[in-house]
């Protein structure tokens, strides 16, 4: 027999109030984040815009002297921008490698189902966008289930470590202090093997990135 417990009107009202407060707090949190990013990034964007205007003015002058019309110049820069957004670029008559190689596609689907959303590669066809939606609907729950199972498995070595600490240090420290030791040790391992070592490896692989760039990517993605 399963007892059915119905929430009282007071409990429902309390839940609604908590939900409303949570939404308001989330809104203001997003608002603060937007303000901070505007303050940090806007000045750099303005500098880039001024540099682009100077660059565009110089090229407009050179192309007009070569006999190009204003409309042709605008179309030229528009075409370059569109191709660059698609990942197609030429430099010294050498075209960049194709975006949708197997390696790039494998990286894309990995970032997709892990909800990282790195954004370096994205589908542009309707079929690709539709498949992305279906792929996420199946892949993200599958990934979350796998991570949940992994966390359950990691509880065993964590509990074993806690027992060892209690056995070795139980006569010297209180239980709350041993909990702090245990948490500190686990966080140190996490920092070392998930953030510091991968960041160092990527620094050696990606020579144009520094350590802190890799560390921030590992931390926030």
UniProtKB/TrEMBL annotation:
Location (main, coarse): membrane
Keyword rRNA-binding assigned: no
Domain Potassium channel, chain residue ranges per copy: 97-154
GO cellular component: plasma membrane
Record membrane topology: Multi-pass membrane protein
Subcellular location(s) of the protein: Membrane
Keyword Ion transport attributed: yes
SUPFAM superfamilies linked: Voltage-gated potassium channels
Highest taxon in the source lineage: Eukaryota
TM ranges: 20-40, 99-118, 130-152, 180-203
GO molecular function: outward rectifier potassium channel activity; potassium ion leak channel activity
This protein's UniProt keywords: Ion channel, Ion transport, Membrane, Transmembrane, Transmembrane helix, Transport
Record-given protein name: Potassium channel domain-containing protein
The species this protein was found in: Wuchereria bancrofti
Lineage of producing organism: Eukaryota, Metazoa, Ecdysozoa, Nematoda, Chromadorea
């Amino acid at each position: 027999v399963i007892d059915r417990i119905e929430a009282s009107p007071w409990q429902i009202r309390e839940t609604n109030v908590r939900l409303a407060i949570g939404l308001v707090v989330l809104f203001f949190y997003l608002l603060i984040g937007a303000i901070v990013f505007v303050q940090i990034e806007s000045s750099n964007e303005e500098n880039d815009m001024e540099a682009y205007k100077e660059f565009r003015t110089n090229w407009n002058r050179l192309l007009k002297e070569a006999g190009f019309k204003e409309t042709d110049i605008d179309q030229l820069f528009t075409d370059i921008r569109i191709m660059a957004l698609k990942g197609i670029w030429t430099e010294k008559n050498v075209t960049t490698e194709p975006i949708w190689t197997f390696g790039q596609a494998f990286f894309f689907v990995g970032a997709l189902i892990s909800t990282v959303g790195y954004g370096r590669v994205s589908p542009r066809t309707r079929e690709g966008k539709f498949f992305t939606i279906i792929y996420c609907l199946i892949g993200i729950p599958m990934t979350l289930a796998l991570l949940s199972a992994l966390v359950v498995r990691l509880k065993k070595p964590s509990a074993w470590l806690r027992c060892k600490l209690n056995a070795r240090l139980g006569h010297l420290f209180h239980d709350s202090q041993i909990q702090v030791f245990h948490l500190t040790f686990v966080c140190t391992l996490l920092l070392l093997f998930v953030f510091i070592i991968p960041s160092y490896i990527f620094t050696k692989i990606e020579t144009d990135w520094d350590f802190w760039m890799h560390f921030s990517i590992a931390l926030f993605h």
